[in-house]
Specification:
Pfam families: DegT_DnrJ_EryC1 (PF01041). One of its GO terms (biological process) is polysaccharide biosynthetic process. Its cofactor is pyridoxal 5'-phosphate. One of its GO terms (molecular function) is pyridoxal phosphate binding. With 377 residues, the chain is of the alpha/beta class. It folds into two domains: 241 residues, 3-Layer(aba) Sandwich (Aspartate Aminotransferase, domain 2); 123 residues, Alpha-Beta Complex (Aspartate Aminotransferase, domain 1), CATH 3.90.1150.10. 37% of the residues lie in helices and 14% in strands. The chain has a seven-stranded mixed beta sheet, sandwiched between helices. A three-stranded antiparallel beta sheet has the order 7-6-13, with no helix packed on it. A three-stranded antiparallel beta sheet has the order 12-14-15. Strand 4, helix 6 and strand 5 form a beta-alpha-beta unit. The radius of gyration is 21 Å and the shape is globular. The two termini are 23 Å apart. 50% of the residues are buried.
C-alpha cells in the first residue's frame, strides 16, 4: 500500500534519538530547550516555542494561553480536524463556524466578518493542506474587534506568506509533528507567538500549572529547593527529550522536505491539467506553501468511487475532512448541514492523494495514471 502520508527517518535521526537514550535525560531536559529554540527560529519569532505532546495539545495549550474561557466565542472553519474547535470548547468557549474560500479551503475573511460579535475572543484559521491563511485580513478583523488571531499551522511549518514565515503571521500559531506532517517528533506539537505573557501562560498550562521559578513564588520564605507552587489549573503536555531530539534533527532537513513536496505537487498538477472533472489545489500570489496534503477535488460526484478505486489498487487515499459541524457533538448544539455551502462542497469532492517527501516520480505517475483512467473510463 502506498500510504497517503508517512514519516521520513534517516540514520542521523536515529542517532540523535540514540544519543538521548544513552544520556541522563529522557523527559523534559536540554534537548527540549534546544528544540524549542529551533522551532522559534524556523517560525521567525523571538520567544522560544512551547513544545507539547501533540498538535491537539498545542491547540488546547494555545487557547489556555490566550485566556479563552466561558462566555468567549471562537470563530473557526468547518473544514478542519475537529480538534481546532473542540480544544476551545474544553476551555468553556462557544464555537462559531464561518465558511471558507472556494479556492484554498481556508477561512474566508468576509464570512468571519459576518460572524463576529462582541464576545469574539479568538479567530482560529487553519492552513488547509499547507496553504497559509489570509493572515493580514483575518488579523485586522480580529484586532479591530478586540480579538486575537490563532493560526492552526498543523499542515504548514516552513511555509511563508509574502516572505513572512508561518509562525510570525498571527498572534499565536500552533504546529503538529505527527508522523504524516512535514516533520515529526513521532508525536508532538508546539505553540509560538508574539506576546511573552501569552507564552508564559501556555508554558504553565502544559506543565500542570505549577512553577519553581523563584520570581513567581508567592510564599517561598523558609522553603528548601524542593519547593513549588500551583497557581492555576494545567495539564501534563510536556514533550520528552527523546522526541525533541528527533524534531531538532528533522528541522535540519525541512527545506529538503519542502522542496520535494513542491515537486510532487507540481507533478500532480501537470498530470491532471486540462481535465474538467478535476480541480487541483490553488496557490495564491505571495503564498509559498509547505504542502502537507495534495487535496484533489473531483467535481462529477464520484468521490466515493474514486476513493474505492485507488484503495483497490493499493493507493492509500484519504479524505480531509468531514465538515466539523456535521459531527453529532455539534449537531446537538444546533449546527446543521447546509449552513456552510462552500466548505461542504469542497469537502464533498476532496480526496487527498499520497504526499510525502519519500515519494518517487514513479509513485506519483502511478497515482496520476490511476486517477486519469478512472475519470476517462
Amino acid at each position: 500500500m502506498l500510504n497517503y502520508g508517512r514519516q521520513s527517518i534517516n540514520d542521523e535521526d536515529i542517532e540523535a534519538v540514540a544519543a538521548v537514550l544513552r544520556g541522563d535525560w529522557l523527559t523534559t531536559g536540554p534537548a527540549v530547550t534546544a528544540f524549542e529554540r529551533d522551532v522559534a527560529d524556523t517560525a521567525g519569532v523571538a520567544e522560544p516555542a512551547v513544545s507539547v505532546t501533540s498538535g491537539t495539545a498545542a491547540l488546547h495549550t494555545a487557547y489556555a494561553g490566550l485566556g479563552v474561557g466561558p462566555g468567549d466565542e471562537v470563530i473557526t472553519t468547518p473544514l478542519t480536524f475537529f480538534a481546532t474547535a473542540t480544544c476551545a470548547m474544553w476551555q468553556g468557549a462557544k464555537i462559531v463556524f464561518a465558511d471558507v474560500s472556494e479556492d484554498t479551503g481556508n477561512l474566508d475573511p468576509q464570512a468571519v466578518e459576518a460572524a463576529i460579535t462582541g464576545n469574539t475572543k479568538v479567530i482560529a484559521g487553519v492552513d488547509y493542506a499547507g496553504h497559509p491563511i489570509d493572515a493580514p485580513a483575518l488579523g485586522k478583523l480580529a484586532h479591530d474587534n478586540g480579538a486575537l488571531l490563532l493560526e492552526d499551522a498543523a499542515h504548514s511549518i516552513g511555509g511563508t506568506l509574502d516572505g513572512v514565515p508561518v509562525g510570525s503571521l498571527a498572534d499565536v500559531t500552533t504546529f503538529s509533528f505527527f508522523p504524516t506532517k512535514n516533520l515529526t517528533t513521532a508525536e508532538g506539537g508546539a505553540v509560538v507567538g508574539t506576546d511573552p505573557e501569552v507564552l508564559e501562560r501556555a508554558r504553565m498550562f502544559k506543565s500542570i500549572g505549577y512553577t519553581r521559578d523563584p520570581e513567581r513564588l508567592r510564599n517561598p520564605q523558609g522553603q528548601g529547593g524542593w519547593y513549588y507552587e500551583v497557581h492555576e489549573l494545567g495539564l501534563n503536555y510536556r514533550l520528552p527529550d527523546v522526541l525533541a531530539a528527533l524534531g531538532s534533527n528533522q528541522l535540519k532537513r525541512l527545506a529538503d522536505f519542502k522542496k520535494r513536496r513542491a515537486e510532487v505537487t507540481a507533478r500532480y498538477n501537470e498530470g491532471f491539467a486540462g481535465i474538467d472533472a478535476l480541480r487541483t489545489p490553488a496557490q495564491r500570489e505571495g503564498a509559498d506553501p509547505m504542502w502537507h496534503l495534495y487535496p484533489l477535488r473531483i467535481l462529477d460526484g464520484r468521490r466515493r468511487e474514486l476513493f474505492d478505486h485507488l484503495r483497490a489498487n493499493e493507493i492509500g487515499a484519504q479524505v480531509n475532512y468531514i465538515p466539523v459541524h456535521h459531527q453529532p457533538i455539534f449537531a446537538e448544539l444546533g449546527w446543521r448541514q447546509g449552513q456552510f455551502p462552500v466548505a461542504e462542497a469542497y469537502s464533498s469532492g476532496e480526496i487527498s492523494l499520497p504526499m510525502f517527501a519519500g515519494l518517487t516520480d514513479g509513485d506519483v505517475d502511478r497515482v496520476i495514471e490511476l486517477v486519469r483512467d478512472f475519470v476517462s473510463g
